[in-house]
Amino acid sequence: MIRKAALAKQIYVTVDDEIGVLNRMADTLADRGINIEAVAGYGMAGTGKARVMLVVDDTRRACDLLKQKGFTSLEEREEIQVELDNKPGALKGVTSLLAAKGISIKQLYGTMSSEKAPVRVVLATSDNQTAIVTLKKAVAR
Predict the structure, then answer these.
(1) How do residues 43-83 score in pLDDT, each as one tens digit?
(2) Which sign does the torsion angle of CA 129, 135, 140, 141 carry?
């Protein structure tokens, strides 16, 4: 059920929680031909700020462009991207493997797709190195 597992750079951007901020980010990247492969975000309660997480096809250029547009609270982290069959139990395969190794999932979000296309899950764990080795072994089976 796990098709692929790889480390991926994820961009974390802390922004003012205001209407149109994600539009400005998406516009900046689209205008330069950078594809957003995965995106998630949330408001940070009581701060007036929001956090946006992006996986893009050109992390370095995306960071440079966003900084030029005033998005200066940026951070890059190496996370795990897993491609799964789009069927019941696929996520269970990932979570079971990680739980068996004593690895905690700190953050997780997924993409949607048509019934026949795979889904992607982006996650951060308590031990990304052990997690990626574990997940890659499962792909090889």
Answers:
(1) 999 999 999 999 999 999 999 999 999 999 999 999 999 99
(2) positive
